[in-house]
Amino acid sequence: MNLPRPHDPRKRHGIALIAGAVFASVVPTFANTPTKPPIRAAPVTFVSCPIYRDTDQGPKSGCWLADDYATGVRYDIGQGRTKPQVGRMVLVEGIPAPAPNLCGGAVLKPVHTSPLASTCPAVILPAENFPGRPFVLRLDHVLPPADVVRPLPQGPFANKRWAIEFDYRSDFLAYQYSEVILDAIARYVRASHPIEVRVEGYAATRPYVVSGMRLVEPPQLAEDRADRVARALRRLGVDRKIMRVRSSVNPRPAAIDDGLAQPSLRRVTIRVELARNRPER
Amino acid sequence: MDQTIMSARTFAGPHQRRRGSRHHRRCAALSIAGALAAVSGMAPAGAGSAAVAPYHGGTAHSTGTGYWTPNSARTFPRLVEYPDATGTIAVLNADGPTATRGNPFFTALGTNGRACVTCHQPDDGMSVSVATIRARWRATGGRDPLFAAIDGSNCPSLPQNLRKSHSLLLHHGLFRIARPWPPRDPDGRVITPQFTIQVVRDPTGCNLDPKYGLYSRHPMISVFRRPRPAANLKYVTAVGFTFDPKDGLPLPIDPETGLRMSGNILADARAGTLKAQVLDAMRTHLQVRGNPNPADVAKVIAFESSLYTAQIADRVGGSLTADGATGGPEALATGKPGELNSPQHPQWSEFFAWARKNRARPSATPAERAFRASVLRGIELFTKKTFLVRDSAGLNSMNFGNPVRNTCNFCHNMNRTGMDVAPGQVDIGTTNEPRADPQPGLPLFKLTCAPQFPPQPFLGRVVYTHDPGYALTTGKCADIGKITIQSLRGLAARPPYFSNGSAPTIRAVVDFYNRRYRIGLTEREKRDLTNFLSVL
């Protein structure tokens, strides 16, 4: 299997982006001035010690920043589904976006952040005139309350595939993301009566180096991820008799819609099979 | 305005403080009178009680009749009220008047003379307060079944006639909870724990006891906890959402009923259902021999599920069901359980009407108006004042990040009870070093996580704790020190607070949070929060 090459931010970054980002990150007076990275900027990947900037725009607001030590650029990394933890290094995988500098760093969006085991100083900065941004909950990322009666999906049905991504070295099903996918799968299964539900876990077992740190996931993690998803589906009523649970290492990137290949290697795919060789929807 | 409130509280007459707060420093003198009155008020069944101002005009209810002893022949009315530290607690029996004779909730089913009601007293909001415990000691010379050796003493092996053998119960309202080591799953299978456990300090002697200790033939960890109220249980068992965000899995399903389990029963969530909880209580606290009678179990569940408790009147603020407010237990009985607070369903809206009508009622005294305004400010603080929630396993360890800015109702998010709609196992630090308040009377354990497992996310691989909490159920390092969030209703009737009784007053609870999360509350804000919590 082929793995994509790890991203090397030192080679792929545009100088203009760096200059713009640095300028924006150190001049709060221009906090609302949008930085303008190149269209479809190259992804960046780095390991850093995260910084929390205590901007107060209500519950779950507050900014997360991290410096790419290779370039000196400070990024705003707060728009991923998993937020960092002060005092623990973080793996950042993201794409610079042309967005206003509200926090003191060039915005990465999409962005994935994975807390690492390595510790570092816990740093919390004051707002320093940066407004931050309020937390906005996407309605398609939340389930309705348990007592809301929802109609099952209507046919015609076809074979269908989903993917759930995980943080680096984690099998935790992230909130306000995973449960929506799992719920959709369980409801599709309930409605379509498939002959098989294939759950396949993957782990990024090929080592790669980011910011001088060797990153690799243990093969067992692929199995742990698959088992966890299968357990979740069982709790949602999917019959264990129709589930086939497997794991695999060194996966190819999944078909991705956010332009980030590496996070897609840390996934579980779930394929609902109504009949052999039926086209997938 | 605040001075008025404090004055009114301080100089409330002793006749209104039958069971006055003994921990209220400003009321030290009155607390003596209150305690003396408590002795007479805690007489066995049938004894009279102090009169309570009738706040429910036209509603059938009874005033309190003192301590409920097992095996008594009484009628538990539809509504019963008792004075407490700040006003009046009420218990609503939604199924209507119930004869206690033959009802297993009131019957000593085991060998130690206890019934469920022994530790779930109506005048203590269906828990049991230190004031009640001390009064029972004085009234019975320590021979009440409440002080049963199995868990009403520091250790069964101690001489049971000595007061000091029951010090944790008498001083902090703590009962011994003996958990098997290593942990067992609900089917009794051994769970291989991710950590080792050592006894660092054992002031009760029970964790090193040759019969009851960690190195005994049947190894046990003895922790000491407050009893949770046997009321408002539809909120405790409510499933608001199917997914447990802290565990990262859908809620488990009870194989017997096919219903999803809330995960909010008991401090360490060792019982997934009320049935499991009742069975556990019968076998341990009541010392029922053999398998409890299924009919008794069903009747206990039915009775306790019909009970709702809440504060119904405040000594200063007056009726909590007047002028549009819907405090008290009636609204709990009709309310929807498991409802997450939201802009459409704001939390503690039970008292919002006061904001509209407070000024409009000319008969309200200045103290009453001031108190109600204070409660409303307390609600505003509880639901709107943000602070950095930090280093709390169960919250910051999921994908919200550490820290995360939020309010009190980030965790206390269920409407009407302030429980967590998701299973509420969280470590706020009440039981773990170095954040726990000093409690030399409690045991201290050293937990060491094995290297192949993730450590406790914010306390590391070596944790010193009075109570490992949820980890005694799961065996996981990540769960060390997590304690299930409990209902905030009826607080005024059942001090002390937190699972280990470390906060003697509601104000001490507010002070703990203010210290723990550096909220920066002003003195007035602390009073407002205290007043608000006292009317729940």
In brief:
With 281 residues, chain A is of the alpha+beta class. Chain A is 17% helix and 28% strand.
Question: What can you see in these coordinates?
Answer:
The complex is a heterodimer of chains A (281) and B (536). Chain A is an alpha+beta fold. Chain A has 2 domains: 9-126, Beta Barrel (OB fold (Dihydrolipoamide Acetyltransferase, E2P)), CATH 2.40.50; 139-273, OmpA-like domain (60s Ribosomal Protein L30, Chain: A, 2-Layer Sandwich), CATH 3.30.1330. Chain A contains 4 helices and 13 strands. In chain A, the strands form 3 sheets. Chain A has a 7-stranded mixed beta sheet. In chain A, strands 8-13-9-12 form a 4-stranded mixed beta sheet. The longest helix of chain A has 17 residues, at 219-235. The radius of gyration of chain A is 20 Å and the shape is globular. The two termini of chain A are 25 Å apart. Chain B is α+β, with helices and mostly antiparallel strands. Chain B has 14 helices and 18 strands. In chain B, the strands form 7 sheets. A 5-stranded mixed beta sheet of chain B has the order 1-3-4-11-12. Chain B has a 3-stranded antiparallel beta sheet with strand order 7-16-17, with no helix packed on it. In chain B, strands 2-5 form a two-stranded antiparallel ribbon. In chain B, β11 and β12 (318-319) form a beta hairpin. Chain A binds chain B through residues 52, 54, 56, 58-62, 64, 81-87, 124, 143, 145-147, 172-176, 178-179, 182-183, 228, 231-232, 235-236, and chain B through 239-243, 245, 248-253, 260, 338-340, 386, 388, 396, 398-407, 410, 457.
